[in-house]
Write a structure and sequence with these properties.
alpha/beta, Quinone Oxidoreductase, Chain A, domain 1, Rossmann fold, 2 domains, 7-stranded mixed sheet, 6-stranded parallel sheet, ADH-like_C, zinc
Amino acid sequence: MHAVVYHGDGGKSWDEVPRPVIESATDAVVRVDAVTICGTDLHILRGDVPEVSAGRILGHEAVGTVVAVGSGTTRSVGDRVLVSCISACGNCSYCKQERYGLCQGGGGWILGHTIDGTQAEFVRVPFADRSTHLIPPDVSDEEALMLADIGPTGYEVGVLNGGVEPGDTVVVVGAGPIGLSVIQSARLFSPSRIIAVDRESARLDAAQRFGAVVVVDNTHDDPSAVVRELTDGLGADVAVEAVGIPETFELCTQLIRPAGRVANVGVHGKPATLHLEQLWPRDVTITTGLVDTSSTPMLLRLLQRRLLDTGRFVTHRFALHEFAEAYDVFSRAGDTHALKVVLTR
């Protein structure tokens, strides 16, 4: 088969590699029918995730068809499944709390990280019962694919960790796919307003389509001044960091009111300054986290009932072997206006 193989120092290529086989009773091998590229993959290529070694197949989200199963899984050959970005052993103390991202039994974020991932013609999925989800027949591959990572990440790490409540003012810094996912799922909790901050006009336009009522281009306008003006000088109830650079994290801590909440979602490759000398008397809460994907079954139900619209994330489509072009388009989102790219068999 062929797969996107990481070669270190930012290098990758579409290489011929051995097809995966069942290695454990709880495994399933899935034929990849649709796959996407994540911002985290770009972080890997930039060297922000040094745990990823040369020779690793990239990717951690896919939709596909089960072609082989171990003796210890209830999945069946022919099942159409969503491959989650998080794998869960189901037995450790964290999995029993549904905190699958912290799995201590060999799971967590492993696909495309510590084991071979999904940007391939076939992928081996450990702990298949908890790491794949059956897709309802009335949900398309593209719609389901958006719930492999960005859907639950925006909901869990942004909205739930941020404690969004009815009537809140929510600021989302970064209107890429994750930020847009935060905006879409925050609307489920009826905030009074959602404000999006970004440097790209196309992404701010997308933020308005997804539900932001105010957008701020921080190349021209001061986000702090805009937020203060809209909140009687207090600041936002919740600020979600969805970029992953020190400047945007520090901006979020400046945008919130006393007793406000900062939810960091972005993947950081460099240290960020935490101004405790300013924050400590203001009762500020800061959360971090890797997605658990415990919400994926619920999000699939919302999608099936058309209470979520995940298909709108997809802006570019490619054949499976066109990974070089897809990576180029996705990495130049400012020029190409890409949100999510989808590659299909």
